[in-house]
Amino acid sequence: MVGPLDGPVDGVIPVQSHRRLLGYTVGLQDIELPFTMRLAQENGWSSAYAMRVFEEYKRFCYLCMHSQRACTPSLDVDQAWHLHLTYSQDYWKRYCPDLLGKPLHHGPTLGGASEDVKFLDQYNETLVFYEQIFQVPPPADVWPEANIRFSEHLRLRWVDLSKVYAVEKKRVYKMISMLLMTTVIATASVMHLLF
Fold it and tell me: Of 41, 109, 143, 187, which has the most beta carbons under 10 Å away?
């Protein structure tokens, strides 16, 4: 048995620990729907993006184990964490004890303004700690700036795509503007014919 990952040395993750961390896989890989493919499918991501999010999730867990303060994930990293928790045997009996060295619990927000401020601060500190530990800035597509991560306009919810259509707002706006333009042209043509 190799044991849990080594902690940071001079504030940086040791190379061997980083390799082991990124090499970790969840569940069986030679099945029809392995972990990263399920992550992609459930979130509407490409398989390449899901694999990147999974790597960032593992880095986030390492940060949690070695930060003096609680860390806050990006939304996409949080999706990977939620999915990993459903693989409970792997998460609690393999990942946490064998790789992280101790349990890593996931707790929801209690809600309210003070919680919003707390998580915003923690997220910013997580981004700074990430750059210190891994010696590179977090990738912006997986780890957006805090004002985007905690945008009041951000509304996520599970949707049953067999019952509803999900269309990006920018496409809807484009279709509406085209429809209005067509209506204006048709109305002008009819008015021209009548008068």
Answer: 143
